[in-house]
Write a structure and sequence with these properties.
Number of domains: 1
Shape: globular
Helix content: under 10%
CATH topology: Maltoporin, Chain A
Number of helices: 4
CATH class: Mainly Beta
CATH architecture: Beta Barrel
CATH superfamily: TonB-dependent receptor, beta-barrel domain
Structural class: mainly beta
Strand content: over 45%
Distance between the termini: 44 Å
Oligomer: single chain
Number of strands: 39
Radius of gyration: 25 Å
Length: about 700
């Protein structure tokens, strides 16, 4: 595997060198588009100058690769593995950063707003239509974000409201899938601009009775007067109805053969629906002393309606499955305001504060039912009429932060940041069936900090080699997933998660920026990781003592011509428990030294796309996910597996037709663990082929 990647990189590097060193060829190659990121510092900067591991994928590149979901968009990102599906449904995904695969362990940001707010990332409401770029920051989130992360940040940035492009996208393919999207400017008077995106789709799967239907609308409005002061508004509506798949149960170290891969043990008519609306607004304006004042605010509401089940005992017996009926209402409010100044002696200072509020109200009931192992739907599973189990949660996160960028000389920069976190959470659980009510309040006040430096050791025109290092101290309140039955035993509100990490590496640009390369190593000590467990067959979340994450990540990107992009990555991750005792069948077991479940030791990817302005286009992508243990005791080892995809099409100045294939080897390996079904795993979706037509106006 490693030799294959190294040989491929050597060949592609030779091609890039030949095209950039030949005077005749160099004149034909246009300049590489400048790259900008705003995730690391909230200020527009070149990622090469930031002392952190960050990649930027332009919307044009993702369109050339035919990416329509998060897995496709980040399939070539360094050190990142995206498992499609998971407990939130087939429209969701479970990202892995730094060897930690949890759907709530990273921070998702959309146009500067934490997407999901005070609770969990709203992955099912994420859309990748009409985007400008996707930024990926590996490692803990910067001090400017109160809804934080320990392992990574994904920020999706849509095209500006002033964009004049008009596009229509239509697609259809395997398992009755199909849909379309439409993006266009809408004229407004004066300095105002607006842009509308509408989309709808149905995506089917090979798994029995598994699909989702989505309707989405995004309206962006912005005022950009000549004085540079900017005002903007966004309205985002997402309507998602899902028929969820079943995770496949594990018995001991094997998957039972009498539970077919594509079977679905959900009751007939199972659904997992999420209807979400968000309003966002902000402004940027000049401030005294040559500074800039920026403010962002958002309000969102989500209505989730759930009727689903999980196979508990993979035996043909009565009541071998457990079901849930639940309604969850979530409200998020987010406000951030900060000032930035460019000061003498190459100093840039940013200071601000943010407030994040979340209110969640869930009511539901659980029940047992009989599921056929073959996946045929249960004959009669009545939905509980009395949803007498209630969970109410109120969260308030406050934060004040400051960051400093100082360049004492041209090739050296120091970044420092500090944040004071103050969080308050109140949770109440009412069990109407038992006639009990319990509640708890938790208040935490804790600082966080970061310190980094980057040195440009070599520079020639646009090319450079830089070395960087950073230290980050991070704090995050524990996640809550509103699972029924979590009030039994222990605290209602788990201890907050904390980490201390160091990271260092190099970044390089070569051949007039035709080649970008990076390599980094990291070490993170983690406490109170929130992980899934089961008590008496009822799923629950617990704190998992202490863990250590360490590894090495590397990547190369080649921009061979204006229409050819190639990327290759390799990463090694070692994620282990260092002090965690958990009961297994009533026996306390120390897990120190054991690898964290579902954490792949090796990740590799290679892809190349050819996308000219006119004519034939195509691409190839290869991914490898290494071995990982399926359980905390490291008894069930899943082997590594490859995934392979091809794209081909034709483009003119007005239209483009393409065919994209995914998982051509039809692998069905376990890629994500359920946090609701004990010892159960979601599989890689089966082979699929989709055709698409894009029209430009």
């Amino acid at each position: 595997m490693k030799n294959l990647l190294l040989c491929s990189l050597a060949i592609l590097t030779t091609i890039a060198s030949a095209q950039t060193t030949s005077p005749s060829n160099q004149q034909k190659v246009p300049p590489v588009q400048q790259t900008v990121e705003v995730t690391a510092t909230r200020l527009a900067e070149d990622p090469q100058t930031v002392p952190a591991a960050i990649e930027v994928f332009s919307g044009d590149e993702l369109s050339a690769r035919g990416a329509r979901d998060l897995q496709g968009a980040l399939s070539l990102a360094t050190g990142v593995d995206i498992a499609p599906g998971g407990d939130p449904g087939p429209a969701s995904s479970v990202p892995e950063f730094w060897g930690l695969k949890e759907f709530d362990a990273f921070l998702l940001v959309v146009d500067g707003v934490p997407w999901g707010g005070a609770f969990n990332p709203a992955l099912t409401a994420l859309n990748l239509s009409d985007i400008e770029r996707v930024e990926v920051l590996r490692g803990p989130a910067p001090v400017m974000y109160g809804a934080t992360s320990f392992v990574g940040v994904i920020q999706v940035i849509h095209k500006d409201a002033a964009s004049h492009t008009k596009t229509v996208d239509l697609h259809g393919g395997s398992f009755g899938s199909g849909g379309g999207s439409f993006s266009t400017p809408l004229p407004l008077p004066g300095d105002w601009n607006s842009r509308l995106t509408l989309e709808g789709e149905r995506l089917g799967f090979n798994d029995d009775r598994t699909s989702y239907r989505r309707g989405h609308g995004l309206w962006r409005v912005a005022r950009n007067p000549k004085d540079g002061n900017r005002v903007w508004f966004n309205a985002d509506m997402n309507w998602l109805d899902q028929n969820p798949a079943s995770p496949r149960p594990r018995t001991g170290t094997i998957f039972p053969a009498d539970v077919p891969i594509d079977s679905n043990q959900n009751m007939d008519g199972a659904f997992l629906n999420d209807h979400r609306g968000s309003l966002m607004a902000g402004f940027d304006r000049s401030a005294a002393g040559g500074g800039q004042w920026s403010t962002t605010g958002s309000f969102s509401q989500s209505r989730q309606d759930i009727f689903r089940g999980f196979l508990v005992d993979p035996e043909p017996i009565d009541d071998n499955a457990h079901g849930f009926r639940e309604k969850i209402n979530l409200t998020d409010v987010y406000v951030d305001s900060h000032l930035s100044w460019k000061l003498p002696r190459s100093v840039r200072f940013l200071a601000g504060g943010d407030y994040l509020h979340g209110t969640g109200a869930a009511r539901g009931a659980d029940f047992d039912y009989t599921a056929a192992l073959t996946g045929s739907p249960a004959s009669v599973v009545p939905s509980p009429a009395d949803l007498d189990f209630h969970i109410n949660d109120h969260r308030d996160f406050y934060g004040a932060y400051g960051s400093l960028e100082w360049s004492p000389f041209e090739r050296f920069r120091v970044d420092a940041g500090i944040r004071l976190n103050a969080t308050r959470e109140y949770q109440q659980v009412i069990d109407g069936g038992e006639g009990t009510s319990v509640d708890q309040t938790r208040v935490d006040v804790r600082p966080g900090a970061s310190l980094g430096a980057i040195l440009t050791a070599w520079q020639h025109n646009q090319d450079s080699v830089s070395f960087y290092a950073n230290y980050r101290d991070t704090f995050k309140p524990a996640a809550i997933d509103f699972g029924i039955g979590e009030s039994e035993g222990g605290d209602l509100i788990l201890k907050p998660e904390t980490s201390r990490s160091i990271e260092g590496g190099l970044k390089g640009r070569f051949f007039n920026r035709r080649m970008e390369a990076e390599a980094s190593g990291f070490l993170m000590n983690f406490e109170n990781l929130v992980t899934a467990s089961s008590e008496g067959g009822v799923p629950e979340l617990i704190n998992a003592g202490k863990e250590r994450f360490k590894g090495f990540e590397s990547g190369v990107a080649l921009f061979l011509r204006s229409d050819v992009i190639a990327r290759a990555t390799y990463s090694f991750h070692d994620a282990r428990f260092t002090d965690f005792v958990q009961d297994f069948d009533g026996v306390p077991t120390q897990l120190a030294g054991h690898r964290i479940e579902m954490s792949a030791r090796n990740l590799a990817a290679f892809g190349i796309s050819y996308s000219p302005a006119r004519g034939f286009l195509g691409g190839i992508e290869f991914n490898y996910t290494g071995s990982r243990y399926l359980d905390k005791r490291n008894r069930a080892l899943a082997g590594g597996f490859p995934s392979f995809g091809l794209s081909a099409g034709y483009r003119t100045g007005r239209w483009e037709f393409r065919v994209d294939s995914h998982n051509l080897l039809d692998r069905r390996d376990p890629v994500a663990e359920s946090e609701m079904g004990d010892a159960q795993y979601y599989l890689l979706p089966s082979r699929r082929v989709d055709a698409g037509l894009r029209l430009h106006f």
